[in-house]
Design brief:
The protein has 210 residues and is an alpha+beta fold. Helix 1 packs across helix 6. It starts with 22 loop residues before the first strand and ends with a strand. The chain has one domain: Diphtheria Toxin, domain 1 (Alpha-Beta Complex). It has a five-stranded mixed sheet. The chain has a three-stranded antiparallel sheet with strand order 2-5-9. Strands 4-10 form a two-stranded parallel ribbon.
């Protein structure tokens, strides 16, 4: 039974483990933009929206599309891009240096992964949260990572609608899914002409020299 909670309560409900999670299956491929000198399948234990505060398991962050991965990694820096409405202010600059530094990876799964679906108000209410969880500071959203990870249904990740808008679907894949995941680096973003064309068209990206 879902307990009564305030409209905005940043802490997970005490009965979360007894709730039925809004699970969905996610099929590959997914896409990741990452520092080119790193392992494309690196499970980050330190920084991210749904990382474990105790750093006992890592998370791979990805998106359902190539341009979504681009937006998640390069367009959501503080003060750079606050959501779809910020597009009205003009183009979003991305340096050619960043395009040389960051690479694209394709992530495939041995089988579809069971993920907690937070793309709808219903899914968020089901776990005792609201739309604020997707836009809150990471210090808030991280509090929800561990209770979800430890849920008896053992989800393999979390899926949500990115605050980048434009229909971008974001993924946080838990380290327990590592045996089922393969990541293939596809080279620096500067060489991904189709992806860059999509970023320019969908997000009004402007490539600047430095």
């Amino acid at each position: 039974m879902v307990s009564d909670r305030r409209p905005y309560d940043p802490t997970p409900p005490i009965d979360l483990a007894a709730r039925t999670l809004p699970l969905t299956t996610i099929e590959s491929p997914a896409w990741r933009v990452y520092p080119g000198t790193h392992d494309p399948s690196h499970f980050n234990k330190q920084d991210g929206r749904f990382n474990d505060p105790q750093q006992q398991y890592g998370v791979v962050y990805a998106a359902a599309t190539e341009v979504g991965a681009f937006a998640e990694r390069l367009l959501l820096a503080p003060g750079l891009f606050g959501g779809p409405t910020s597009l009205a202010a003009g183009g979003i600059p991305v340096s050619a240096t960043a395009l040389q530094t960051f690479s694209l990876a394709a992530i495939t799964f041995v089988r579809p992964l069971a993920c907690v679906d937070l793309r709808t108000p219903t899914g968020l209410v089901q776990i005792g949260a609201g739309p604020w969880l997707i836009t809150a500071p990471h210090s808030v959203s991280k509090q929800w990572s561990r209770p979800i990870f430890l849920h008896p249904s053992a989800p393999e990740g979390i899926v949500w609608s990115s605050r980048a808008g434009q229909g971008v679907v974001s993924l946080g894949l838990h380290e327990r899914a590592k045996p089922k995941i393969t990541a293939q680096g596809l080279g620096p973003l500067i060489g991904q002409r189709k992806l860059l064309a999509e970023a320019i068209r969908e997000f009004d990206v402007i490539i600047v020299p430095t």
